[in-house]
Amino acid sequence: MRLHQLKVDYDAEQDRLLMLVATNESVELRLSLTRRFVKLLWPLLVKLAEEASPRIRTQANPEARKALLGMEHEHAVSKADFSKPYDAAGSERPLGELPLLLARIQTGHDRNGQPVVALHPADGQGITLTFDSVLLHSLCRLLQSAVKKSDWDMELKLPGTEPQEGAAAERVRTLN
Question: What's the domain range around 68?
Answer without folding.
Answer: 3-153
